[in-house]
Amino acid sequence: MPNVGDLESLILDQQLDFAGRLNGDAYFSDITVVVEDKDDITEMITGKLVELTAKGGKIGVGVIVQSPECDDEFPNVLFGPLDATWEFLALENRELNQLSNGTGKRAFAIARRIHRIMKQYRSEGLIETLVPLRPCIAPVSLPGLVAYSVRFGCQESDAAAYQKCATPVIAPAGGNAGDLVTLNCATEFAQIYFTANNTHPREGNGTLYAEPFAAPMEGSVIKACAYRVDWVASNVIAKDFPALVLSGEDLRPGSEGDQLVQQI
Fold this sequence. Notes:
The structure is a single chain. The protein is an alpha+beta fold and 264 residues long. The protein folds into 2 domains: 4-160, Phage tail protein-like (STM4215-like, 2-Layer Sandwich), CATH 3.30.2000.10; 169-243. It has helices at residues 4-23, 41-47, 49-52, 94-97, 107-118, 256-263, and strands at 32-35, 54-55, 58-59, 61-65, 69-71, 83-92, 131-142, 145-155, 169-171, 180-184, 191-195, 207-208, 213-214, 220-227, 237-241. The strands form 4 sheets. Strands 1, 4, 5, 6, 7 and 8 form a 6-stranded mixed β-sheet that branches. It has a 4-stranded antiparallel β-sheet with strand order 12-11-14-15, with no helix packed on it. A hairpin with an 8-residue loop joins strand 9 and strand 10 (180-184). The longest helix has 20 residues, at 4-23. The radius of gyration is 30 Å and the shape is elongated. The chain starts with a helix and ends with a helix.
């Protein structure tokens, strides 16, 4: 499983690849193509208006390759591929574009060209073939600009494979307070964290399992979860180890129950 930094790098590489494909087309020789670097597109446009509308001595238009949005089309399939939506924004500042050094290219025409170049494009890495969504081209409301969104869908490629730790096994299966508890996990190199207070076991909230331990005498619910670097954590397993209920017969002097009470 890629860690967060690796995944962000893959996404950025994909955006740069898309931008490179557009820049490789002669139509974009005077159209700036940039990669989204802010969550707020309006803020990005405001901060980069000159950069977004100036290239090759021409001004007035630009394209932003946005970060993807993802959805799980197969929620019942473990680690099924995510459906990703990639969006390109074609921007036009009409006032600048109509000047003598304007490109003269309209936002919709730019959006149409993006559609033609990127349709059925496949890049090695994070995605499969780009397929136009419906609607593929749609107007977008942005202050001071004429803008169109061009949207494509795809699925993750096998490059983003994930692995999940096996669920730990708690033994004995039906124990009581005071029993010796053993934890095991079928995933090699996995670390097992456990708790005895019915909370979610993890680093910082629980104990790293190293050897068998006695279930608390007051009774408890023991939970365990397995972790491995760059893997998805296992499911949490829980077992109830109830306190012993002693009868009056067990509490006679010298009985085993009496010895147990003395130990408590």
